[in-house]
From TrEMBL:
Its EC number is 1.6.5.-, 1.7.1.17. HAMAP family: Azoreductase_type1. Keywords: Flavoprotein, FMN, NAD, Oxidoreductase. Residues 3-175 form the Flavodoxin-like fold domain. FMN binds at S10, S17, T18, S19, M97, Y98, N99, F100, S137, R138, G139, G140. Homodimer. Binds 1 FMN per subunit. This is FMN dependent NADH:quinone oxidoreductase. The gene is azoR. Belongs to the azoreductase type 1 family. It catalyses: 2 a quinone + NADH + H(+) = 2 a 1,4-benzosemiquinone + NAD(+); N,N-dimethyl-1,4-phenylenediamine + anthranilate + 2 NAD(+) = 2-(4-dimethylaminophenyl)diazenylbenzoate + 2 NADH + 2 H(+). Its cofactor is FMN.
């Protein structure tokens, strides 16, 4: 049966987080299609992975038999995360926008799993072509033609990492205007937020079913 790697990074729990609500809709639809499948779940807000340090970085460019004890320990954590990624038949990532970028916890995970010669820049990568769905929620709108379009760094960055470097099959679901219900200055945008959220939830369920059918074929 297929394996889904599900990663959340929102600092807000449960339904207080739009990205979590949408990834949950995806996961439920996925599990309906794969009741006996495997889900590997990581909540990076509750259980952050280590940020890359010098030992973890340099160990990636050195033969294992030359690693110092510190390098070996740091690299073992990277390998554990990479093996989870390599096991996945599909990947689901919740990536809310904080201060125009992804959460630092998600950046740390990406830094750990991007290993040149294993997951990146090699034809022998086991993750190449794996479908990844990113729920890129944001408080406002950064869509083409909007005043804040120049500040859209989340999708641009993740395209560079996930699609161009890790060679994953990338798709985005983008619920926006999530701050409208909390910010009185955005109250007139609440209907647009609600429509965006509903569409994101529907898109997530549809995408999960589509991937399940593709993998089963």
């Amino acid at each position: 049966m297929a394996t889904l790697l599900h990663i959340d990074s929102s600092v807000f729990p449960g339904s207080a987080s739009t990205s979590r609500a949408v990834t949950d809709a995806f996961r439920k639809a996925w599990e309906e299609q794969h009741p006996e499948g495997t889900v590997i779940y990581r909540d990076l807000a509750a259980n952050p992975v280590p940020h890359i340090n010098a030992d973890a970085h340099t160990a990636g460019f050195a033969a294992p038999d030359t690693h110092t004890p510190e390098q070996a320990a740091a690299f073992a954590e990277r390998v554990r995360l990479i093996e989870e990624l390599e096991q996945a038949d599909a990947i689901l990532i919740g990536a809310p926008m904080y201060n125009f970028a992804i959460p630092s916890t998600l950046k740390a995970w990406l830094d750990n799993v991007l290993l040149i010669g294993r997951t990146a820049m090699t034809e022998e990568s086991k993750v190449k072509g794996t479908p990844v769905t990113v729920v890129a929620s944001r408080g406002g709108s950064y869509a083409p033609g909007t005043p804040r379009e120049p500040y859209e760094y989340v999708q641009n960055y993740l395209e560079a990492i996930l699609r161009d470097t890790l060679a994953l099959d990338l798709a985005f679901i983008v619920p926006e205007l999530t701050m409208a219900p909390q910010n009185p200055a955005m109250s007139e945008l609440i209907p647009l937020f609600e429509a965006s959220r509903t569409k994101a939830l529907d898109d997530a369920a549809a995408k999960a079913k589509e991937l399940a059918e593709r993998l089963a074929a």
